[in-house]
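Fold this sequence, please.
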Amino acid sequence: MRIISRRRLVFLASAFLGLVSTTYHAVYAEGKQPTPREPLKLNVGFNIGSLNREVFLETGLRKGFFKKCGLDLETKGYAVGGLIIQDLVGGHLDVGLAGISPSLAGVAQGGDIVIVSSQAKNDAPLVVLDSIKSLKDLDGKNVGTPGVSSIQETLLNYLEKKNGFKTKHIYGPPTKLINDLEKGEIVGIVAWEPVAAQAVSKLKAKYLLDTVVDGAEASMVTVSGKLLRDNPAAVRNLLIATNETREYIKTHLDEVMQVAAEKTGIPADVIKDGVKRSQLYISPLAINMDSVRLIVEADIAGGKLHNIDQAGMEQFIQKAIHESHLKTALTATCSP
């Protein structure tokens, strides 16, 4: 075996460092920059008509919060949260910005998905025609919600059980619900914003409740289990960008509302009224676990969580929700 002397080894090391230094200075002398790492592409699903695209995603993309965290979001709109979760479970999405009820249902059905953060709370206002004076007046009447899988449906079920009345639920997209309310085919809606604010501004309608349950979770950041296992840093960066977007919306509300108005054609004051009532996309990202338990109980009772019972509720919640990445993200930043 050939033995390299200590003096020879030192000489070779010095020569190598000199070469690296020369190359470095040559690159920067020519004004070149190192090639940046390619951003990670994430396919993200959101509810159409929920202001998720026009307020949250638009702000985060326009201000570069996701880009700064090394993420390139490809967004796709869906009519209801159940379809988002279906595609997330099927591997067609990496992230679902979807209601907590469809997210929980996806886990209960064996989907490899995990809730990692709250995104919006309180997004379940009850708007009624002026003729309705109290919850009891709704008994036996038709009330609209976005669909069976929606958190709005869950919270209407909870409201009825708690207050001893029963309505007939009518389902449909936002435009249909407003049209049905205008024609008197339904007397109220539990819907997301800005649907509720639009109904109040256009019709002889009013907010009976700004939100069905104060502080209740509505839209969640739900990710594929594969993404969480294979690239936990990407999930952390997603949550950092989500928090920075939330902070910007909160401190630049008028600017954000104006952009949303231009994107939707809805007057900025109407959007702002709904957003301020619900604190939409500006409420804390920490998950309100008391509301989660309330929602899980209501969904078990409503038959929306198959194979889950009261005895196994806590174990199911622990499986469905992982907040560890959120806790670190709330105090972290991404370097440009």
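The longest helix spans residues 6-29. Residues 6-35 have pLDDT under 50 and may be disordered.
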